[in-house]
Amino acid sequence: MTRPPPLLAGPRPTAPRALLALLLAAAPPAGALAAAALLLPAPAAAQAASNRIVAVVNGDVVTRNDIEGRRRLFAISAGLPVSAQALDGLNDQVLRLLIDERLRMQEVQRRRIPVMDNEIAETIREIEQRNNLPPGGLRAQLQRAGVEPRVLYDQIRVQIGWARLIRRLLGSQAEPSESEVREYIEAARAREGQPEYLLSEIFIPVEDPARAEQTRRFVEEVVAQLRRGTPFAIAATQFSQAQSALQGGDLGWVRPEQLDPEVARIVAQMPVGAVTNPVRVAGGWQIVALRQRRESGREMATILSLRQAFLPFSSPLDPQNPTPQQREAVERARRLQGAGCDAVEAAARGTPRPADPGPIRLESVEAPPLRQLLASLPIGRASQPIVSPDGVMVLAVCARETRNLAELTPDQARAQIVRDRVELLSRQLQRDLRRRAQIEIRLPPAEPDAAPRAPAPRAASARAG
Q1: pTM of the prediction?
Q2: Where does the record place the region Disordered (predicted)?
Q3: Which residues pair with 63 in a beta bridge?
C-alpha cells in the first residue's frame, strides 16, 4: 500500500511574519509541555521572587518573570523537554535580549511608529491558520505550557515595529536605483562559476568586554542546543541579534568574500547540513549552518506547479475491513484519475490540505517514489489514488519547467541590496541605542536568592558589527 506524500509546502512567508510562523511551527510534543510545566514557580515565595526587578532600561523595568517567560517560550518553541536547570545557562543572554528589545521599543515609540493591536491579532491568526490551530488555539497552547501569551505578543510587537522603523530610516535607500541594480547584476555575472553558499546565521554581539566570557558560554550553550535537535530557525528567531533573525536566520546565497574570513574558511570545508562551532567575528560571535552549495550562476532545477486533493478517512484504515466512508473516499479519488488540474482543485475544496502547495522543486522532494511519480506524470492528468491509513490522495502536475535558479533577476538583486542596507543600519542603530542608554543591573538573573546589589548606572557599549 502506497503512503501519500506529506503536505507539500510552498514558498516561505515573508518578513516580518516569516519568523512568527517558526515560533510554534507545530504543536509541541507532550513531553515538551510537561517539561515546561516543571518551570512553573511555586505559588507564594517564588511568585514574589519572579516580580523582582532585574534591570532598569531608561526607566523601563525587566523582571525575573520577564526572563522566565522568554526562557519558557524558547523551550516550547524548540519542542524540547528542557529542564529548568538546563535553561539556567540562558539567563544572562535572555536578559541582554530583553534589554535590547526595551531599547528598540522605546525608539519605536519615540519616533511614533505605530504597531496596532489588530496587527498583532492578525499575525496570531495567521500563525494559527498556518498550523491548523483553531481560533484561540495558540493562546491556549502557550497557557498550557506556562507561558503568558503577552510574552509572544510583546516579541511580535517589537519585531514589527523595529522592521518598520528601519525601513523608514532608510528613506530613499530602500529603493535602489536602476543603475545600482544593473551594477549588482553585472558583478554577479562576472563571478559566474565561483562557489556560493546557502547559509543561516545566529549573531550574538559582544557589547560589554567585561561580559565577553559570559557571552561566549551562552553561545556555546546555543550550539549545544542545536546539536541536541533545536531547529536552527527557532534558535535564530529567539536569540540572534542580526536582522536576519526576522527570517529565522536565513542569509540566502552568499559568496566567500561576503563573509568574515574565518567563517568563509570554515564554510568552504563543511558538509551540507553542518553547523559551525561559535566563530569570533567583528562585534561578536557567529554560528552558521550550511544548507546548500552551488557554483555562482549555475543551478538548474525542475519546477513543478501541482494540484493535490487529500480525502481524509474518518478512522484509521483496516485494509481487510474498510468502512463505507473509506470505500467512498477511495472511489471518489479513483474517479479523479486522469482528470485535469481544475477537477483536482475542485475536489480539494473543504479538505484539510491546500489544493495548490505553491511551486515545488522536483529535486528537493525527498521520497524517491514520490519524486519518480511527479517526474513521470503527464501534464494535466491526475495520478491514480495514493492510499494510506489516514486518507487517500490524488496529484496532478499542471506545469513542469527547467529553470536556472542561480540566475539573478532584477527583483532579487534589489531585495539583496536592501537587505544588506537594512542589516547594516539595524546593527548601527542598536549599537547607538546601547551607547546612549542608562541601564541598571539590579539583580543577577541566574541567582534568585542573591541579595540585591546597589544599583549602578552604566552605559552599555558595543563593538561595531
Answers
A1: 0.60
A2: 440-465
A3: 53
